[in-house]
Amino acid sequence: MVAIGTVLILAAWWLLAVAMSPGAATRRRALRLGAVAALVASLACYVVAIGVEQGPVFWTAVLMLGALAVALLRAIAGEDGSARRGRR
């Protein structure tokens, strides 16, 4: 259950990062809605697997690490919004 929650967190951060790039408003709204749904589902996975007392604590820690991982991967890959984009 924890592994599923972690994958959902990574997917949610990726969806939020993609939703920030320019595009149609309906597409960005759908991506943000999907990200919120993934975050809620991931919290439920952590609470079911670890418990009500420690589940949200571990979920918050993985939430921070997931944000860092997605930001680093997008920067290394040179995705939209990276600092190197303007130099190419």
UniProtKB/TrEMBL annotation:
Which parts pass through the membrane? 6-26, 33-52, 58-77
Keywords, ordered alphabetically: Membrane, Transmembrane, Transmembrane helix
- Give yes or no: UniProt keyword Transmembrane: yes
The answer to keyword Transmembrane applying to this record is yes
Q: What is this protein called?
A: Uncharacterized protein
